[in-house]
Structure formats: C-alpha cells, structure tokens
Sequence to fold (350 residues):
Amino acid sequence: MSTSISLAITMGDPAGIGPEIILKALADNSLTEKCQIIVIGNRQLLQFTYEHLLQQTQLTKQDLAEPRTLSILDVPLDDAITLGLGNAITGGFSFACLEQAIALTIQGKFQGIVTAPIAKSLWKAAGHKYPGQTEVLAQRAGVNKFGMMFVAQSPHTGWILRSLLATTHIPLADVSQALTPQLMSLKLDLLIDCLKQDFGINQPQIAIAGLNPHSGEAGQLGTEEQDWLLDWLKQAQASYPQAQLIGLIPPDTMWVKPGQAWYGNFKFPPNTADAYLALYHDQGLIPVKLMAFDQAINTTIGLPFIRTSPDHGTAFDIAGQGVANASSMKAAIKLAIQISNQRSSNYQLQ
Fold:
C-alpha cells in the first residue's frame, strides 16, 4: 500500500451526476487507502448533494463518502444551481475546476487528474470554446502530440480492452481529410509508448482498422486503403519491429475477438490484441460502450501527467436521483493508481 500517490478529482458539471459518483466512489475505502485524493469542487455543493441523496433516495450513509471527511479544494460557486439543469454558470464552474487541477498538477502537487463529466455545450455557453477536456489538458500542458484512449477490464473474464482513436471529436465528413500518414504515425507512436510506459507491454500486438466497409474491398468501397493506408502500414511495420501490427482489419469484424474475450463465449481464448487503433470516433467507441459502458475509462495519452475519466456524460436526466452508476469513476481512479505505480516501477528499474 502506498499513499505517496496524489490525485486530483474534478467535480465536473455540478448539475450533473459528477458530485454523486464522486461521493459513491470515495465511499470505497480500498481506493482512498491507496492514494491521497483531493476533490477540486465546491464543499457546500457536495454537502448538499450528500444530504439530498440521503433524504430523497434509497441510499444510506454506507453508500456515500461524508463530505466533511474528504479533502476538498474549494472552487467558488456563488449562484444556486438545480440538479439536472445545467447552464452557463455550471459550465463555467466545471471549466474552473479543470483549470485549477491542471495548474496544481503542473506545479507537481498531483501525479494525475481524474475528471468527472462536463457538458461541452455549457462550456461554450460560458465562453470556453474547446472540443472537450482532452484538448484543454493538452493545451495547458504544452503538448501537441496526444491521444484519446479507452480502457476497460471485463468483469466476466478479466481481459483488458484498450482502444485508441486516430481522430476524435470531428464530423464524420471530415475524417477522410483529417487522416494522414503523419497523423497515423503520431498516434501509433503514442500508443506504443503508452503500452510500454503505463502497462508494461514492451512487445505489443496492435490491431489497426481500415477506414471503409470491408477495408475498401480493393478500392471498390473506398480508396483510402489503396491510396495510402496500406503503404503506411507496411512502413510502420518496418519502423516498429518490436510491435506486431495487424491490419487493415475490416471495421465490422475487428471487434469480434474483443467481444468474445470480453464475454468469455469461446472454447479457447482468442488471439486478441493488446490494443486496437480505430480511425474515427464511433468506429472505436460504439463497441467500447456496447461492451463496457459502466466500466470504461477515458485516458489521455501523451501528457506529462496522468489523466483518466469515466467514459460517460453528465446524465442531467438522472442527476439527484441516486441511481448514477459510479463503476466507471471507481475504475478511473483505480487506473490512475495503477499507471502511477507502473511508472514508478519503470523509474526504479532504470
């Protein structure tokens, strides 16, 4: 057991389920015993949420961490809010929490940040025009090489799914133009480094998707594979001899083996990859959410610090009802601890 690990947890949008899943996650002593956790949010709001959930739902004190026992870095929230009704005020507050966490982490106060969900539209309403938290983290950290990866461990078999997106929050119509050999090499390089640094996998097997149905079917269903993706893959295979790069796998079949590994419906364990490189948002995230909606974690790779996050949104429609599932938040905290321990182990071996 080590308490030398220090993590910041941002509250996210205070009108969403962020406060509830934080209270539920931190009620698990197995997490709080393994690291020092500071909640960056609003103490009064956490206390209100705690009392509301005890009085208005079936939750008990055993289900929730008591706010007075938590370490909280208070961020001002002068205006009253209504659970389930986000607005520009709540959007601005969630942005302020993230900025505070990043600044303190860059100063060395924390090894990593676990971010609760925000509403991008409410950031925009508050005057903050960013595609999401990932882009703010990268900008403030001063990096332009970063990636959005999703990690989940199957509760059925223990198998670990890792899926990296080559392109992220852009319209589908823009994907083909955004994808370039340079971008693919950048993402692959990040992925190989991440698997080694954060998961201790030195000789990974990585599955890489095609872009078009049937990976273009020799140019009949799209030409990007024939025009450059296959040539890029051959060059990448030569450039990364330590990695087994498999592709270009038709997108509709790439997720068959991961699905079997996740649910355990096979006679013998399939030859699954250590990570999957999807070329656009839904290609990588529909299977992740289908298999692991309550377990998946979003982690930003390429940053000089750890960042993990639950892979779900603010869920304004169920805020304050006591039914929010904190499994993904717990998993995000656990992954941040595991990555911190792995990096420390790597450092000691040097």
User: Anything to note?
Assistant: The two ends are 22 Å apart (CA to CA). Residues 5 and 341 are 8 Å apart (CA to CA). The chain is about 40% helix and 15% strand.
